[in-house]
Amino acid sequence: MSGTLVLVRHGQSEWNLKNLFTGWKDPDLTPLGIEEAETGGKALAATGLKYDIAFTSDLTRAQKTLKIILDAVGQPELETIRNQALNERDYGDLSGLNKDDARAKWGEEQVHIWRRSYDVPPPGGESLRDTGARVWPYYLTEILPRVLKGQTVLVAAHGNSLRALVMVLDRLTKEEILKLNLATGVPMVYTLNPDSTVASKEVLGDMSGAH
Questions:
Q1: Domain 4-91+133-206 part of CATH 3.40.50.1240
Q2: Options 36, 38, 79, 88, the catalytic residue
Q3: Which one is catalytic: 10, 36, 126, 158?
Q4: Mean pLDDT across the stretch 157-176?
Q5: Would the pTM of this model clear 0.85, i.e. be above it?
Q6: Annotated catalytic residue 175
């Protein structure tokens, strides 16, 4: 019995627009972000999939994206579980800073390492590996068992929490995951085999919009 796992990154947030490190801070969606979520919702509605449960983070931008998508697929009352295990990577001392200001303060190369290395965290924050260390156990205990029962599960979360998941699902190396950006509001539909490996993957939209 194979189930379906749908992953979608939240639409553009106010801080994405302002080029700020966001992390666990909680800005809302921009009008474009709402539009991106609506577009993703329409793409999912066109597949005809019906969901058994949804998961999202503790942060407004992911929760709002999920609500817009659930409205679009005609399941506004779907049971939804919120958990901070799915939160965006914590950028620590970088949170709330403009990316250009951070480069001016710490240097382009150092900021690039913090943003793009696998296991070097920014001061007071998390690396991608640290983010995975909370995402992966949550996925294994709460999300995957439902998919393996044949359920269709929707997860609306963040660029880095989802990259940690995609790394495992797509069997990417530490080097490969660093090159991967996930576009805002673009759903990825996975069908899993009974042994939890990926049977198929479809991206419903244009991943080139990533930032």
A1: yes
A2: 88
A3: 10
A4: 96
A5: yes
A6: no
